[in-house]
Amino acid sequence: MTTALIFPFLSISTGHHHVADSLQAELSLKAHHSETIDIFSHTYRRLEKVSSAAYLKWIQYFPKVYSSVYHILACGSHETYRRHLMYELIFLKSMKQMIEDKQPDIVFCTHALPSYLLNKLKGQFPNMKVVNVYTDFFVNRIWGREHIDYHFAPIKDIKEQLLSEGVDEEKIFLTGIPVHRAYKAQDQTAHHSEKKPFYNMLITGGSMGVGGIFKLVRELSPKGDVAYHILCGKNRKLYRYVNSLNHPLIQAFPYIESKSEMNRLYERASGMITKPGGVTISECIEKQLPAFIYHALPGQEEMNMNLLKKRNLVIELKDGNKQPIEEQLLSFFRSKESLTRFQANVSQYLQEKSDLDISEILERIIHNRPDLGNAHV
């Protein structure tokens, strides 16, 4: 039995954790033991809680400042010998101790910081495989490259970036951002053509319900052709506000932990209004739902948006004060040309991905299969 560790970062429920859950589900199906660990919580539990709360406040109230800091620290060309001494000072010793204690066969990083640390430590643990599992459509320069065994790339553009930075092609799998296998199931009770109102839109601001979602909800003015299901996450203030509207076509949902329940909502949806988080967009692509972007958080989501717009995989909404949201949605859904173009872009993206299912890729890298490079990766 293989022992695997999965490293997201921070305890807040972000895409890093959702991808970690997806990997853990795949590993458990093959009877591999896996454990998800946040190095920050493990090392400095109280400080991590304070830092997580501060991070959410920072991106919510001072987005331009966060964006500027993120671009300075994380954007730009990857430099092989660049060191982040603060990260090493705070976490490197703890990470080394954890690897010595747990003795994993393979480690998956769903965040850049653990990847950086393990890239530094890899020489001391030559038999341990390290895999970067990118959770955005952007790879910042903090992610480790040189001593990482495998890379799960989210999109062809990122594979090309990694190749240009010197990563060997046989180490890269074009997996897309892994989504939970629950979203690959089809709900046989869903009958889209029989639903009324004619279009059923999911709206989300992420699991924490941050961003411009309040402004968006205030701009909704249902006329009878579209129903809106607001996924409020853990934002109780938003949940109470939506319920207070008491509108038959606007319904609030609290945080949904069940993947099967979330899949049921996806199956009944015509599209999603969301931020450009890597995991959410990947789930939309998996379900082939149009994703309408109303707001992007500073940092990763800004960078995601640049690439997603370039590849025409999302639709950017205009300010509702300039053109009503519902009018924009109906314009898209009632245009055969828009729907055909969207479906073609999604199909192209899916065709670029590896021929192998994520579970087969995991088995091959765990068991050192000699035919690893024979498939389209």
SSE map:
Layout: E1 3-7, H1 15-29, E2 33-36, H2 39-43, H3 45-61, H4 63-74, H5 85-102, E3 106-109, H6 112-121, E4 129-133, E5 150-153, H7 156-164, E6 172-174, E7 199-204, H8 213-219, E8 226-231, H9 236-245, E9 250-253, H10 259-268, E10 271-274, H11 278-286, E11 291-293, H12 300-310, E12 315-316, H13 325-333, H14 336-352, H15 358-366
Parallel strand pairs: 1-2, 1-3, 3-4, 4-5, 5-6, 7-8, 7-10, 8-9, 10-11, 11-12
Helix pairs in contact: 3-4, 5-6
Question: Could you characterize what this model shows?
Answer:
The chain is an alpha/beta fold and 377 residues long. It folds into 2 domains: 196 residues, 3-Layer(aba) Sandwich (Rossmann fold), CATH 3.40.50; 170 residues, Glycogen Phosphorylase B (Rossmann fold, 3-Layer(aba) Sandwich). Helix content is 45%, strand content 13%. The protein has a 6-stranded parallel sheet with strand order 2-1-3-4-5-6, sandwiched between helices. Strands 9-8-7-10-11-12 form a 6-stranded parallel sheet, with helices on both faces. Helix 3 packs across helix 4 and helix 5 crosses helix 6. The longest helix has 18 residues. The protein starts with a strand and ends in an 11-residue tail after the last helix.
Keywords:
six-stranded parallel β-sheet, Rossmann fold, alpha/beta, 2 domains, 377 residues, globular
